[in-house]
Design goal:
Number of strands: 3
Largest sheet: 3 strands, antiparallel
Strand order of the largest sheet: 2-1-3
Helix content: 55-70%
Order of helices and strands: HHHHHHHEEEH
Strand content: under 5%
Distance between the termini: 60 Å
Mean pLDDT: 90
Number of helices: 8
Low-confidence stretches: none
Length: 165
Amino acid sequence: MKRQRRKYENPTEPFDKQRIEKEKQTLKEFGLTKKKELWRAQGLLRKYRRLARELAASRDEGKENILVDKLVKVGVLDKGASLDDVLGLTVEKFLERRLVTLIFKKGLSGSITQARQFVTHGHVLINDRKIFYPSYLVPKDEEEKIQVSVSHQQKKVDAANVTSG
């Protein structure tokens, strides 16, 4: 059995007030429930930036294009981006590509917490496939295929209108 590893690192200074305040604001903005989710996104960013620095040092054009194309496909970078753009990425770019954030930004839910609830309860479909993970990074080509089906709530609302009306 393969050993599971952590996909995040704890902060080096645990009681840095500025970092804690910024993290709280980011958690609220993107609907994250734990700081672990934020640290995981920071780890992902750290990984891609490290790869970009290594590729810039080795000057391997093929691998540079593969890395940039992968990030363009995810939707973090725009078409025609370069390796310097990878080094300029921020955590917010990755958090904006999460399924919960996209549902809320598209107006398919009333709030970011409601969007998270839709995902965890299995009401979100992408390509007719249920997605249960709020942290799912949605590729650019799947962004238009997001559907929220909350049919049982519609039935409750319709039944309430019939009985009261």
